Amino acid sequence: MRVNLDVLLILDALDKYGSFAAAAGSLYKTPAALSYMVQKLEHELDILILDRTGHRAKFTDTGKMVLEQGRALLNAAKTLEKNAIQMSSGWEKELNIALDSSFPFTLLLPIINDFYQYAPQTRLQFSQQTLAGAWEALTQDNADIIIGAINEPPASAAYAYREMGRIENIFVVAPGHPLAGETEPLSNGLITRHRGIVVSDSARHSPRLNINLLEEQQRVVVDSFASKIPLLLAGTGCGFLPRHLARPYLEAGTLVEKQVESWRRYDHVFLAWRTSSNGLANRWWRERLLSDPTIAHAWD
């Protein structure tokens, strides 16, 4: 077989990072080594995977097909490795948990400590996602469990999920912001005259979500609520926050809640996992998260 997993990993990295140099850094190889592997596959199959006529190489239609089906093979290989390890020991070697940016990571600290009393050999890897990014992490096999994912779950028997609560979205500004003194409810037209602070969607391959976003509004785009909040506090712009994240600033008077004319008030949040993932660590985390009263009130 002339197609091997190494070259598929290279194509995946090229698509994710956009250049041979960045992809090489992520794979701890040289750009020349990556280029050679891709050209070797093109020669052996007599196909063109990359169009190199421009400033930066781009995937041809054939290359896009190889990339898409190659990712399916990579995911299958990951699943094979995980299943083999689980069958041997019962406890997974690694558990990947993706969190929506709205979930307070500190709530997991006692759970992490308790888990390592049972499975010190399992490596926990956490990542932060936004909007559609959590579901994509699960469906693209980059996460075993996702916590706090918003929007509708995928309609597939390959995934299981439980609703954990709901987020209340509120519009906030700093006390010195021009909108702080405006009569409520604020109209969409009035809001568009002021710069918005928005969190980008971390999804790369799935349709992106635009929640409470006005297309006509100028904006500053950040990658998390942790980056958004300081900009709101500084009066740089206006925007929506989950109530549970805004609460300490509302109580301190450093942010002001304003009623608006129209908005998406609630987002339901989910815990989800792949139905094929049934290792001891995965089950331990699911059961603990679903039974922990602190987690149940995380979005209150």
Automatic annotation (TrEMBL):
<feature type="domain" description="HTH lysR-type">
    <location>
        <begin position="3"/>
        <end position="60"/>
    </location>
</feature>
<keyword id="KW-0804">Transcription</keyword>
<dbReference type="InterPro" id="IPR036388">
    <property type="entry name" value="WH-like_DNA-bd_sf"/>
</dbReference>
<dbReference type="InterPro" id="IPR005119">
    <property type="entry name" value="LysR_subst-bd"/>
</dbReference>
<comment type="similarity">
    <text>Belongs to the LysR transcriptional regulatory family.</text>
</comment>
<dbReference type="InterPro" id="IPR036390">
    <property type="entry name" value="WH_DNA-bd_sf"/>
</dbReference>
<keyword id="KW-0805">Transcription regulation</keyword>
<dbReference type="GO" id="GO:0000976">
    <property type="term" value="F:transcription cis-regulatory region binding"/>
</dbReference>
<dbReference type="Pfam" id="PF00126">
    <property type="entry name" value="HTH_1"/>
</dbReference>
<dbReference type="GO" id="GO:0003700">
    <property type="term" value="F:DNA-binding transcription factor activity"/>
</dbReference>
<keyword id="KW-0238">DNA-binding</keyword>
<dbReference type="InterPro" id="IPR000847">
    <property type="entry name" value="LysR_HTH_N"/>
</dbReference>
<dbReference type="Pfam" id="PF03466">
    <property type="entry name" value="LysR_substrate"/>
</dbReference>
<protein>
    <submittedName>
        <fullName>Putative transcriptional regulator LysR family</fullName>
    </submittedName>
</protein>
